Amino acid sequence: MATALGNGLEIFDFTVYSFFAAYIGSAFFPTHDPISSLLLAVGTFGVGFFARPVGALLLGSYADRVGRRDAMTLSILLMAIGTCLISLCPTYGQIGWAAPVLIVGGRILQGFAAGGEIGTATTYLMESGSQHRRGFMVGWQMVSQGVSSVIGALCGYVLSHALAPDALAAWGWRVPFAIGTLIAPIGFYIRRHLPESPQGGAHDAHRHPLGELWAGHRNDMLAAIGLTTGQTVTMYVMVFYMPSYLTRIVHLPASTGFATALGASIAFTIFAFIGGFVADRCASRKALVRPAFILSTAACLPALWIVTRTTHAAAVVTTVMVVTALLGFSVVATLLLMMELFPANVRATAFSTTYALANTLFGGTAQFIVTAMIARTGQPFSAAWYVAACDLISLAAVLCVRERRMD
Question: Of 263, 372, 398, nearest to 323 (Cα)?
Fold first, then answer.
């Protein structure tokens, strides 16, 4: 619970930006065209992802050399600083070009922290459970991410109802960042008092896990990147991008966009927890992951077709919830399949790096790419083709990867 709380707080701080991208775009990247403003805002969202591999390499290596707990404590401190910077940053109208520079700086700090946090926290949970309880333990990491998405979407939904549009655009979007900043010291305190995991680092500052990883596990790293590509793109398009997509592209009310993100986050959380239990009861990770990937790939095109062609909020929310439920059900088994490819002495570095690279190359750029595709084609449905292509990459990876069960 202590690990999940800290992880959820960091993911909330990092991803809440995407829920309010349209308002951040207006405040820091003003243009005459709302699509161009949104492009700049989601482009800055992607900047945070490009810092993630660096954070994954450095903090993941630190976790393998010194310990998981110390790396997680450092990451939550860095995340709090980046979130505070975004929360308090003056707008473009107040300080000019310095405003977007500060926002980019805050996103870089957030990305660096998230890169080390997710891989290290997931590794910590996996190593804290027995072979037959790994799914349950890792499931809490996904639950924490889902709950953080629920809280972020709920903040947007409540604020969009409680505030006038002008007030939401002027200062309301800052409220979730302020909440994340104020809660961070609690997470930091809890992390400082966690025990180290049984396999948590060799406590040898002279080891070079990066060199060991590159020498012996290059192919496994490529397979791990492929496994998570489709899932990360689905998450960032179908959950985090939905408020901006539905309001700016499909022209539905802001409340519908936040309600869709909220419903999707709830579905993901519930089915991730269920999926963790099921993963512990399956003899093979691939036996669970393979059919789930096939269903996800088949579902994304009709799902986005429905979303772009109906004005009924219930239909939009239900459709997106089905897609994210499929995602949540398979995500824990996928993470276990990835982590079990690597031995304990390089596991935090390997998993952090591959997960961060997949999120950077595909997840962090997803919102920008689909927005650019829509701007070029004039067709909101064109976003579906990118999601489907990334799902096919993951499906190919799971068909090719060789399953292992390392301690």
Answer: 263
